[in-house]
From TrEMBL:
Name of the protein this chain belongs to: Acetyltransferase, GNAT family
UniProt KW Acyltransferase keyword: yes
Keyword field: Acyltransferase, Transferase
Molecular function GO labels: acyltransferase activity, transferring groups other than amino-acyl groups
Domain N-acetyltransferase: 4-150
Superkingdom field: Bacteria
Amino acid sequence: MDTTDIRRAQLGDLNALLALEQACFSNDRLSKRSFRHFIQASQSTLLVAEHSGVILAYGLVWHHKGTRLARLYSLAVSPEARGAGLASRLLARLEQNAAERGRLYMRLEVAKNNTRAIALYQARDYRIFGEYSDYYDDHTDALRMQKQIRTLSQEGAQHSTPWYQQTTEFSCGPASLMMAMASFAKGVECSQTMELDIWREATTIFMTSGHGGCHPLGLALAARRREFEVQAWINNDQPLFLDGVRSDHKKSIMAVVHNHFVTQCAAEGVAVNYAEVSQDTVEDWLQNGFAVVVLISTYRLDGKKAPHWVVVTGVDDQCFYLHDPDLDTKTQLAIDCQHVPIAREDFARMTAFGSNRLRTAVAIRPATH
């Protein structure tokens, strides 16, 4: 197999890829339409290993937009070509390609009973960090594995945080705040009931479209009322989120809500700092035992300029790590939204929202009495 060529898949490979899929898998097979999509999609890398004009293997990786995370979507080697190290060669090339595209981690799922594949991944330094029950069509469990494909400093601040998926399109703020609160094991159980309760307490009423999102001071008050010490930082002391709203009526309502939150914070002892939220600020919070919820713009994730709340789970010399409560069930698994690595330069751009470059965050920890 020394003369095997590894190259990008082309549309002319579709029939060979489909035949290889049929030969390698009995369940969860990719369709011809799926292969066509992955060959053409800019966010995917589909490589094939070819020997004497015959495709013996393929590997497929998806590069998540706006993050430094890649996911090994599928890896297949024809039965007659196994045992010659082809899977390891192909995987190494996929890792190299992902690293060259700025990705920091490769993640994958593998059937718990697929000992041969697990051994391959472990030999290439993938580590198990979780599992899914009843994951595949045949009800087999899956292990979740991850490898750091670019060298990072192991020093940094971390905050152990459970992950929760928001249940509405407008409740990322409550979902993120619940994750932050639950990280302290204070008996906080993330639930839709609490998610909606917090949204009602913290909503801006209106937003650019649809239901209103959540105001940082509203989230801060919700945490304070649940017996947390709270710091809210905003680099703007004017009513927030108005620049994307056209209706004067909506703007006036949002301004009333903003001013009322300011009054409530003063009355309830919530510290509000009208100052720039720097990366050092966030890192200091983590090092001092705070959980941090931060507002980002989703532009670098989905091409839309929407405000979105996430929770910071860690930081090192190159990246911030986020739990994103918004799971796109069509293209993502829960793993794709957990401890998502964001390079520092990307984080700096992502945390400035709107034409006014709003930066805001809420830091919490259990109150001491």
